[in-house]
Design goal:
It contains 14 helices and ten strands. With about 375 residues, it is α/β, with parallel strands linked by helices.
């Protein structure tokens, strides 16, 4: 005969009360007993993504940003940020401020929460992002256990279905011990550079490591050859390659005022939670007078970019979700890759979704003129 779990009814009742208190911890703690918002970022090191860089840009730097590129890994590895900054500086006749603030794991929830923190601390004139819907109905950014804090962010869940609210509440519950520990002692943010006190050597020494971000204004140039599968780490050797840019068409732009036939919009609905945070993100940018530009970053995945398509395929009519004043910028794949063999195209990627250093430099030089035109037309610089 097995012994009962509790020796008495009082013990069982005490355990039930303790369990209830733990489950209600995010509500009971509220906002009053949370450590400062920057502490949520200070707990994240390089192995989670370039969060030490993000911490510095959100909470330590205070100057205005002319253009910020925000999003997950395709943005992180897709834009040569120093090149854009140099081009904008030349155009403005003054030192421009261009930054990439990007991370791992796609999702409009992560985009909303990090953009919210950035815009609360710094003025951003133009924010460039891309389609963060990962084709997954359930995937969430694992860093949400640090970034989503119920006492501060519960209002952002209004109008979400109960099941989705429950997922975010559970993330806040999982992150609660770390948050409470931040009240007992302050987390020291990871140093950006190896010669600074407090630097923590990352355990991952691969070319995918994000510790190079500070030297490239937040971007990461990946020196890996192509691997058709994202499940394995074996890549072809990297070899520098640059197509002749003069042979290629520069970017095309779509706005509500000037529709462009190079963009085609499908009616495939976004998952409810993705649509919800996309709308929240659009309203956030509008409230901060921040011009939005959605950038189509080319891939070799037919789900995102049909091979040699004559038009840019978008899964939704984005101006109706984000803002009618936004712009969409991209290059149809048949124009971007014209005259290139499959082998040469693959020299621009390290997997079907991500550009390598070759692709980053090539794509940035073609897309930059349109991004600067948007800046000049839409911002009071």
């Amino acid at each position: 005969m097995m012994r009962p779990a509790f020796a008495s009814t009082k013990q069982a009742a005490a355990f039930a009360v303790l369990l209830l208190v733990l489950l209600l911890a995010p509500v009971l703690v509220g906002k009053t007993f949370l450590p400062s918002r920057e502490q949520a970022y200070a707990t994240l090191g390089w192995n989670s993504g370039p969060y030490p860089w993000i911490y510095q840009q959100v909470f330590q730097e205070t100057n205005d940003i002319d253009i910020v590129f925000m999003g997950s890994s395709r943005m992180l590895r897709g834009i040569d940020t120093p090149y854009v900054q140099a081009a904008l500086s030349q155009k403005l006749g003054r030192p421009a401020v261009v930054r990439t603030i990007a991370w791992s794991w796609a999702g409009y929830d992560g985009l909303f929460f990090i953009a919210q923190d950035l815009l609360q601390h710094r003025k951003v004139r133009q924010l460039v992002f891309y389609d963060e819907n990962s084709n997954s109905k359930s995937q969430r950014n694992p860093i949400l256990v640090s970034l989503f804090r119920f006492g501060e962010d519960a209002s952002s869940l209004s109008h979400l279905p109960l099941a989705d609210k429950g997922i975010f509440y559970f993330a806040a519950l999982i992150g609660m011990p770390r948050n409470l520990l931040g009240l007992a002692r302050t987390n020291i943010p990871v140093a950006l550079l190896a010669d600074q006190p407090g630097y923590i050597e990352p355990t991952d020494k691969s070319d995918l490591n994000d510790v190079n971000a500070p030297s490239c204004l937040g971007a990461v140039a990946t020196r890996l050859g192509y691997n058709s599968s994202r499940l394995f780490s074996e890549h072809a050797p990297f070899s520098p390659y640059r197509p002749a840019e003069a042979n290629f068409t520069h970017a095309t732009v779509y706005t509500a005022a000037n529709p462009n036939k190079n963009f085609e919009f499908s009616g495939v609905p976004l998952p409810v939670w993705q649509f919800h945070f996309a709308r929240q993100f659009g309203m956030l940018a509008e409230a901060h007078n921040c011009h939005l530009v959605m950038l189509h970053i080319p891939t070799l995945d037919p789900a995102f970019d049909p091979i040699q398509s004559t038009a840019i395929q978008e899964r939704a009519f984005w101006p109706s979700i984000f803002s009618t004043n936004m712009a969409l910028v991209g290059i149809p794949s048949n124009q971007l890759f014209q005259g290139l063999t499959d082998d040469k195209i693959k020299k621009l990627y390290f997997d079907p979704l991500h550009l390598n250093q070759n692709g980053m430099e090539f794509f940035t030089r073609l897309i930059t003129p349109a991004l600067l035109e948007q800046y000049e037309a839409k911002t009071n610089y």
